[in-house]
Design goal:
The chain has 17 helices and no strands. With 325 residues, it is an all-alpha fold.
């Protein structure tokens, strides 16, 4: 989903419009626009973790939240998705399965179930934090070599941070929390699969959203209609429906993907990924006033380790410049 800014680069200055610092322009610079988009994206990611924890105390069931998560983007983007129908249909089955399984119904149900058994801090830290580890494992299996230097150190910090989070629940054993943490690890592994799948398709962000949401909504709809998954949306509180519609449907399903792609165009992939690593910290801070969660010592140790690990794991070595360049 890394888009290049070739359009602006190939236009003359006047055709591209006034830029930051130009007397005729009043507005944010491209860097400020990218940072603002990232700030909103991180807030949405934090809201996803909070909603995963809050689902257990709401009048909605996991299937109801999934219908909103995958259905709302389809309704909002229907005209644009219709124009991209041939490109979406042309995606090879392998990458399509990775995307649909990695961020579709299996991921969503795993994240929601794991959040119900643990805490918002666990969801916000384990799910995005472990992705670099799982992606590295996939790349090693494909023969890309073992990470070294700062990337290896970052992966080690991530593993140490997750261990710090769950260690207190090992002795004495808390089966619910450990089962929830294990489910969140599955969700993180699925998201890594989704990340790898995105690299293998030639779709813009809107097309990627359609490729994910179309089959996911069909699957969750079939599970609900056949009674495999129960639904309570007909009797749910209006406030709960509105909350999950905004957070899951409009926020996670629509805005996060588009805004993150926009931020990458403005700031680059590395800076965007590093800034995105602040999501676990935002979750911990927001869970205190919104959910009444108090950060434990394990959270205070584990979350900074995971955050630092994600920053290091996303760093890329700078290419060496020849001396005669």
């Amino acid at each position: 989903m890394v888009a290049t800014n070739t359009t602006r680069a190939t236009l003359p200055p006047d055709a591209a419009g006034p830029r930051a610092g130009h007397p005729g322009r009043r507005g944010l610079s491209p860097q400020a626009e990218g940072m603002l988009a990232l700030l909103v994206t991180v807030s949405i990611w934090a809201a996803f973790a909070l909603s995963a924890r809050a689902l257990g105390s709401s009048s909605l069931l996991p299937a109801d939240a999934a219908l909103l998560r995958f259905g709302v983007p389809l309704v909002v983007l229907f005209p644009a998705l219709w124009r991209r129908r041939r490109a979406i249909a042309a995606v090879r089955p392998g990458p399509a399965v990775k995307i649909v399984c990695g961020a579709g119904v299996p991921f969503f149900l795993a994240a929601m179930h794991g959040g119900a058994l643990t805490s918002a801090a666990f969801v916000g830290s384990i799910v995005p934090g472990m992705v670099p580890l799982f992606v590295s494992a996939i790349m090693i299996r494909r023969g890309h070599g073992v990470p070294r230097g700062t990337q290896a150190a970052g992966l080690a910090l991530i593993a140490a941070g997750v261990a710090a989070l769950v260690w207190r629940y090992v002795v004495p054993v808390d089966t619910d929390v450990l089962a929830g943490a294990g489910t969140l690890l599955v969700a993180s592994g699925l998201w890594a699969l989704y990340t790898v799948g995105l690299r293998e398709v030639d779709l813009d962000p809107i097309g990627s959203i359609g490729l994910l949401c179309l089959p996911s909504f069909a699957v969750i709809g079939a599970l609900v209609l056949t009674g495999v998954l129960p639904t309570g949306i007909a009797h749910a509180a209006g406030a709960d429906i509105a909350l999950f519609l905004v957070v899951q449907g409009l926020g996670v399903g629509l805005c996060a993907g588009l805004l993150y792609a926009f931020a990458i165009r403005r700031l680059g992939a590395e800076r965007s990924a590093v800034f995105g690593s602040l999501s676990p910290v935002a979750v911990v801070l927001l869970a205190v006033p919104l959910l009444g969660e108090r950060p434990t010592l394990a959270v205070l140790v584990g979350v900074p380790l995971i955050t630092a690990g994600v920053v290091l794991a996303n760093r890329r070595p700078r290419p060496k410049v020849p001396a005669d360049a």
